[in-house]
Design a protein that fits this description.
By secondary structure, the chain is of the alpha+beta class. The protein is built from 20 helices and 18 strands. Strands 1, 2, 6, 7, 8, 9, 10, 17 and 18 form a nine-stranded mixed β-sheet that branches. It has a four-stranded antiparallel β-sheet with strand order 13-12-14-15, covered by helices on one side. Strand 4 (about 210-215) and strand 5 (about 215-220) form a beta hairpin. The longest helix is centred in the last third of the chain and has 27 residues, at about 465-490. It is globular and about 95 Å long.
Length: about 675
C-alpha cells in the first residue's frame, strides 16, 4: 500500500520548468528540445496512414481510441497509471466560462440581480384596491363585488348564479357557447371591458374566463381549480413590450444539472412553463454524466416563473436571475472550467507524477476530438456519417436500427424485433424514447407512412441537430487521423513549411461560425507556413482543417492523408459540396492541433468510501456544506484535477495524456463495475 499522501495543492504559474524529457514551447526560441525530440520520434516513421475503421466483433462492445484516429501523445517516456474516470457522476464538474472569461457559478436560488420594472397601470389599479387576497374564496368574493361595481348588480348576479350552478342544472340563462358559458346581451366600451379583464385575470383566474365575442363579453366557468400553492405563477399582469424594454427581453439564469442531458432539463423547464423549448437558449451543451453549471436565457419569461419551475425539476436547480437585451446562442462561450476526480489511483504517487503534471501544464496535449464525439455504442456516429454523406439513406437507417453488442435489454429486443419482422409499431413500443431518439424518430416515420422502403423520409424525421452530428463526427474522424499523421511526420518541434497557422488565442469564441457548424471550429483564414516565416509561429498556432469544400489544406504529406482516408470510405474532400441536400454540403473549418490548459492545479486525497463525494458542487456551497477532506491512511487514493479549456476541447484527452489509458466510456464503465459502481 502507498504511504500516506500529504495534501498538496500546486497552482499554475505559467512558466514552470518540466522535470521530464520535454521543455515548454511558449515561444519559437524555446522549442529546441521539442524539435530535437520530434526529429528522433519521426526518423523511423514509415506509415502515415490512419487506421481504417473496422467492424467490431461481438466481444468488443465499444469503440477504441485507435478506431477513431486517436493514437499519439505529446509526452514521451511515460507509461501512465491506472485510475477510474467518472466512477460517480459527482466526480466530474464543469462550469461554463463566458466570452469575457468569467466562470459561471450558481450562488443564489431566488434573488434577482435587476430592479423591478415600473408598475403597469393594471398593477397600480390592483394595488389601489388593496391587492389580491391570498385566500381563493376571499379573492372570488371580492372579484364578484368588483364586477358588480363595473357591470351592475343584475349582470354580476347573472354571472355568479351561472358559476354556482351544477353543470347539469337547468339554468334558464342565455347560453351561446356551451353549457359552461354565458354571454352578456349588451356591448361595453373598451374601458369597461379592460376593467372586467383586470378583475377576471387577477381575482378570478381559476373560476371564470372572459373574452370578447362579436363585441360582447362572454364568461366561461372553469371547473378545474388548483390551490395557490399548486398553481403556476401567472405571467406578470399587463407586462407589455414597453415593460420588457425596460429590463430586457431575456431573463438570464444559471442552471446546475446533475446526471441529466442539457436538452432534457430544458425540455422539463419548457413543459413546466408551458412554452416552446425554442424560448430557451444556451451557449453550449454539457456532459450528461457529471455536475455541470451553465448560463441559459428565456424569452420574456419572468424570473418568478423560473423560480417556480426550478422547484419542480428533476436533477437540476436554477438561480442567479438577471435580465438582458439578447439571448444566448450556441457558441456564446469562451470555454469550460473542469474539476475532475480520478478514483482508485494505482501506479502513481506525488513524486513520480509531478514531472508529468508539470509537462501537461507547460506543453499541453493533442487536441483530439474525444470519444464522446463518436458515441458510446459499437457502431460509431461517424460510420453513420459516411452513409449520410453518400446519400445512402438505406445504409444510414440500417446502421442505426441494426442489432449491436452492448445494448441494454429493452433496446436489444426492439432492434431484434425490427430486424426480424420489420414491424415498426412493435419495435417502437419496446424502445425508450430518451435512450434512442434517432431510432424512435425513424420508426415513427415508418409507422406513419406504412412504407419501410422510404429510408430517406425516415432519416429526415430525426431532429436536424442530431442528423448533422453524424456528418460532423465523420469530419472529426478525418481530422483525428490527419493530426496523428502530422505528429508522426513532423512531431511537436514547431510549425514546418506547408503547415497552416492561425494565431492561438485561448478562450476566444470561434470566428465566422455559421449555423450548423460545430462549436469551437474557426473559419478565420489561415496563413501558409514557409521557410521565411516559420520562426514567427509556434506549435500552438498550427491548425488542421476539418474536411470541406471551402477550406485550405496543408501543403505537405498530410494533405494526402485527407484524400486517402476519405477514399477508403468512397468520399473525397473536393466533392463535399455536391450532396443533393444543402444541409450536408460541408464547408469545413480549422482546429488547433495542440492546446494547453489554463490555471492547471491538482490535489491528492485519501478516502475510504467510494460513495463519499470528494468535492462539493455549487448547490452544496449554497447549502453550507464543506469541501470533503483527505482521510489520513484512507484505503483508496484519488487525484483531483482542476483546469480551464477553450470551447470544444475535450477534458478526456487531457486525461488520456496523463493516464495513458483508454478513455472510451465502455472501457471506463467496465473498470467502474469491477470496483462497485454506484
Amino acid at each position: 500500500m502507498m504511504p500516506e499522501l500529504t495534501k498538496q495543492q500546486t497552482e499554475s504559474n505559467g512558466d514552470g520548468k518540466r522535470k521530464c524529457d520535454e521543455a515548454g514551447a511558449d515561444t519559437p526560441s524555446e522549442q529546441n528540445s521539442l524539435a530535437k525530440r520530434a526529429k528522433d520520434d519521426t526518423s523511423s516513421a514509415q506509415d502515415t496512414g490512419p487506421p481504417k475503421p473496422k467492424e467490431l466483433s461481438q466481444q468488443q462492445q465499444y469503440l477504441s481510441e485507435a478506431d477513431v484516429g486517436i493514437t499519439e501523445f505529446v509526452t514521451r517516456g511515460w507509461t501512465g497509471f491506472d485510475a477510474i474516470i467518472k466512477h460517480r457522476f459527482s466526480d466530474f464538474f464543469v462550469n461554463e466560462i463566458d466570452r469575457a472569461g468569467r466562470v459561471e457559478h450558481l450562488t443564489l436560488y431566488t434573488e434577482v440581480d435587476d430592479p423591478e420594472p415600473p408598475a403597469t397601470e393594471e398593477e397600480k389599479a390592483i394595488e389601489e384596491l388593496g391587492g389580491v387576497p391570498d385566500d381563493p374564496q376571499e379573492a372570488f368574493d371580492q372579484g364578484m363585488s368588483r364586477l358588480a361595481e363595473i357591470l351592475g348588480e343584475h349582470d354580476a348576479l347573472l354571472i355568479k348564479k351561472h358559476l354556482d350552478l351544477d353543470q347539469n342544472s337547468d339554468t334558464g340563462l342565455p347560453e351561446s357557447a356551451g353549457e359552461h358559458s354565458v354571454t352578456l346581451d349588451r356591448e361595453l366600451s373598451k374601458d369597461l371591458r379592460r376593467q372586467v379583464y383586470m378583475v377576471t385575470n387577477n381575482f378570478l383566474p381559476t373560476r371564470v374566463g372572459c373574452e370578447t365575442v362579436d363585441g360582447k363579453l362572454q364568461f366561461t366557468r372553469k371547473d378545474a381549480q388548483k390551490s395557490k400553492q399548486q398553481r403556476q405563477p401567472a405571467r406578470r399582469a399587463g407586462r407589455g413590450a414597453s415593460q420588457w424594454r425596460h429590463i430586457g427581453d431575456y431573463c438570464h439564469f444559471v442552471m446546475q444539472k446533475e446526471n441529466h442531458d442539457t436538452m432534457d432539463v430544458l425540455s422539463q423547464i419548457a413543459r413546466h412553463l408551458r412554452v416552446s423549448q425554442r424560448t430557451l437558449g444556451v451557449a453550449g451543451t454539457k456532459d450528461k454524466r457529471g455536475i455541470t453549471v451553465q448560463r441559459c436565457s428565456a424569452y420574456r419569461v419572468d424570473h418568478s416563473r423560473l423560480i417556480w419551475a426550478s422547484n419542480r425539476l428533476r436533477g437540476a436547480r436554477l438561480g442567479n436571475y438577471s435580465y438582458a437585451a439578447s439571448e444566448l446562442k450556441l457558441g456564446d462561450l469562451g470555454g469550460n472550467q473542469f474539476r475532475i476526480i480520478l478514483r482508485h489511483v494505482v501506479g502513481a504517487d506525488p513524486e513520480s507524477l509531478e514531472p508529468v503534471l508539470q509537462g501537461i501544464r507547460t506543453t499541453g496535449f493533442v487536441n483530439y476530438y474525444g470519444m464522446q464525439r463518436f458515441g458510446t455504442q459499437a457502431i460509431s456516429s461517424h460510420t453513420v456519417g459516411v452513409a449520410v454523406l453518400k446519400a445512402d439513406w438505406h445504409a444510414a437507417v440500417d446502421l442505426l436500427l441494426k442489432p449491436r453488442p452492448g445494448d441494454r435489454e429493452d433496446v436489444r429486443r426492439a432492434r431484434d424485433t425490427w430486424y426480424q419482422a420489420k414491424d415498426a409499431e412493435a419495435a417502437l413500443k419496446l424502445l425508450p424514447q430518451k435512450a434512442a431518439l434517432a431510432e424512435c424518430s425513424i420508426l415513427r416515420a415508418f409507422q406513419k407512412s406504412r412504407d419501410a422502403s422510404n429510408a430517406a423520409g425516415a432519416f429526415a424525421a430525426i431532429p436536424r441537430n442530431l442528423r448533422l452530428m453524424y456528418v460532423h463526427a465523420y469530419q472529426s474522424y478525418v481530422w483525428n487521423a490527419a493530426v496523428s499523421a502530422r505528429i508522426r511526420l513532423h512531431g511537436f518541434g514547431g510549425a514546418v513549411p506547408g503547415d497552416l497557422v492561425i494565431r492561438a488565442q485561448a478562450f476566444s469564441a470561434a470566428d465566422g461560425k455559421e449555423e450548423g457548424e460545430e462549436e469551437g471550429a474557426s473559419r478565420v483564414e489561415p496563413t501558409l507556413v514557409t521557410e521565411d516565416n516559420m520562426d514567427q509561429y509556434t506549435i500552438y498556432d498550427v491548425v488542421l482543417p476539418l474536411p470541406g469544400w471551402a477550406v485550405k489544406y496543408p501543403e505537405h504529406a498530410v494533405r494526402d492523408v485527407y484524400d486517402e482516408t476519405m477514399k477508403k470510405d468512397g468520399l473525397s474532400p473536393v466533392e463535399l459540396n455536391k450532396h443533393p441536400l444543402k444541409e450536408y454540403r460541408l464547408a469545413g473549418a480549422y482546429r488547433h492541433m495542440v492546446i494547453r490548459p489554463r490555471d492547471f492545479s491538482y490535489e491528492w486525497m485519501r478516502y475510504n468510501d467510494d460513495k463519499q463525494p470528494l468535492a462539493r458542487s455549487d448547490s452544496d456551497a449554497i447549502e453550507g456544506k464543506h469541501d470533503p477532506e483527505s482521510i489520513a491512511f484512507g484505503d483508496h487514493v484519488a487525484l483531483k484535477l482542476a483546469f480551464d479549456l477553450p470551447s470544444s476541447a475535450y477534458a478526456t484527452m487531457l486525461l488520456r495524456e496523463l493516464m495513458r489509458k483508454e478513455t472510451a466510456a465502455g472501457f471506463q464503465s467496465n473498470l467502474s463495475s469491477k470496483s462497485g459502481r454506484e
